[in-house]
Design goal:
Elements: H1 6-37, H2 52-83, H3 88-96, H4 105-136, H5 144-175, H6 180-203, E1 210-212, H7 216-229, E2 237-240, E3 251-254, E4 261-265, H8 266-271, H9 274-289, H10 292-314, H11 318-323, H12 331-346, H13 350-371, H14 374-387, H15 396-402, H16 408-422
Parallel strand pairs: 2-4
Antiparallel strand pairs: 1-2, 3-4
Helix pairs in contact: 1-2, 1-15, 2-4, 3-4, 4-5, 4-12, 5-6, 6-10, 7-9, 9-13, 9-14, 13-16, 14-16
Length: 426
């Protein structure tokens, strides 16, 4: 295979950054226009449950987030260019070489420093989002102190968990020969599975409190549904104090094996009734029973395998480094450049990923309708749309790119059809 032409790669990268940025800005503008056009008109299927004030709040909230997203998009594009062809990564590498650590410690120091700088550079947008947009619309419950503590915990976890993995990766890149990337893939998959097991027991409790479900009536309803669906919640059913940080509500599955558990936000349980909670849980069970979680994990493993194979090839190309502003190649620099550049190109596969996710959500809705009540699930979703200020009228192109769930109108119509299909069978 021919080596990389530095001028060609630099030009392609800059064009890709420009196209990604332009597409993101175009989609945000379409979203703002679509939501603004329906700000004062509640879609007919929702008029009985959602008032005009709720519709207007959802529109204003969506527009505020989109406008913040546009500034973040421009800023992120500038950072990508400055770090690569602008020589940012090369400057950090040259500065830290004075420390004179042996490899892979020196490479790990460079990678961690650049990643920390990227986190700190993006911090103003996180603050703006939390204490500006989320607070203005009544969703934020995070104090500045808690925000700082959370940030510190995340950075320490990244260092304690990611540091050893980074050292192992760099050591294998340097010493394991041509097929180092296969060994790295094996190590990464082992680490992923270990984290999936450990997250509910040891990591999530660092940020939130998890209490066993104590509502006996709801607990019996949940246990009956689990038995009906043939599911064993080995780790139990828990309530998380989501209200400590946000007014948004949600529910999710987490963990593997005996650490597997079902988690409800306390904000969700405050808003929806027993039958609706059962329907939401049935939807989440659908993802498990239909093997969606396993499919996503397998796809992630395959994508990682392919990505590492590509990294192994470009890391051997001198033109890869010189095209992206780095005069001195190294495993750490190859890893950093790859992490910064690849998302620019994979962005254009986002619609395919979102389409697959929406397809799985429809299948999980059908499972919920079969094992619970589609009307209850629709009722719970409408309450969540209202209370989370989710727009009911997204732009179709923006939705096709970014939405992991079907748009509200489409989803409720689908549940109405499922209700008509399954209710006569009961």
């Amino acid at each position: 295979m021919n080596s990389i032409n530095p001028r060609w790669l630099a030009a392609v990268f800059l064009v890709a950054v420009a196209c990604e940025t332009a597409t993101r800005l175009w989609l945000a503008s379409r979203q703002i226009t679509a939501v603004q056009a329906h700000r004062d008109d509640v879609p007919e299927p929702f008029r009985a449950q959602i008032g005009l004030a709720d519709q207007q709040k959802a529109a204003d909230y969506t527009i505020a987030r989109a406008r913040l997203g546009r500034w973040a998009t421009i800023f992120e594009a500038a950072i990508k260019v400055l770090l690569t062809v602008g020589g940012g990564i090369a400057a950090v590498d040259a500065l830290l070489r004075r420390v004179g650590l042996p490899e892979p410690w020196q490479g790990a120091l460079v990678v961690l420093t650049v990643l920390l700088l990227m986190q700190l550079i993006g911090l103003p947008f996180a603050l703006w989002r939390t204490f500006g947009v989320e607070a203005r619309f009544g969703f934020n419950r995070v104090s500045p102190r808690l925000f700082a503590v959370d940030l510190l915990k995340r950075l320490l976890l990244a260092l304690l968990l990611g540091g050893p993995l980074l050292l192992a990766t760099l050591a294998l890149m340097e010493r394991a020969g041509t097929w180092w990337w296969v060994w790295v893939w094996v190590v990464w998959q082992g680490a992923t599975i270990a984290l999936m097991w450990a997250a509910p027991r040891f990591i999530a409790p660092l940020f939130n409190r998890f209490s066993p479900l104590t509502d006996e009536a709801l607990k019996r309803r949940v246990e009956t549904l689990l038995e009906r669906c043939g599911y064993t919640a080995r780790g139990g059913v828990y309530v998380m104090d989501g209200s400590r940080r946000s007014a948004h509500g949600n529910a999710y599955f987490t963990g593997i094996g005996r650490s597997r558990r079902i988690v409800f936000f306390d904000t969700l349980l405050e808003r929806i009734e027993g039958g609706e909670i059962e329907a939401v849980l049935a939807h989440e069970l659908g993802h498990f029973r239909l093997r969606h979680i396993r499919q996503r994990l397998l796809l992630s493993m395959l994508a990682t395998f392919g990505g590492l194979a590509l990294l192994a090839w470009v890391a051997r190309q001198p033109g890869f480094y010189s095209a992206l502003g780095v005069p001195v190649p190294s495993p750490a620099i190859a890893l950093l450049l790859f992490m910064v550049t690849v998302p620019v190109f994979t962005f254009f596969a986002t619609p395919l990923e979102s389409w697959w996710s929406r397809r799985q959500e429809r299948a999980a809705d059908a499972y919920a309708a079969q094992h619970s009540d589609a009307g209850n699930l629709a009722g719970a979703l409408v309450k969540l749309y209202r209370d989370n200020a989710a727009t009911l009228t997204p732009d179709r192109f923006h939705s096709a790119f970014y939405d992991s769930h079907p748009p509200a109108l489409e989803r409720i119509a689908h549940l109405s059809a499922l209700r008509s299909e399954f209710e006569p069978q009961r």
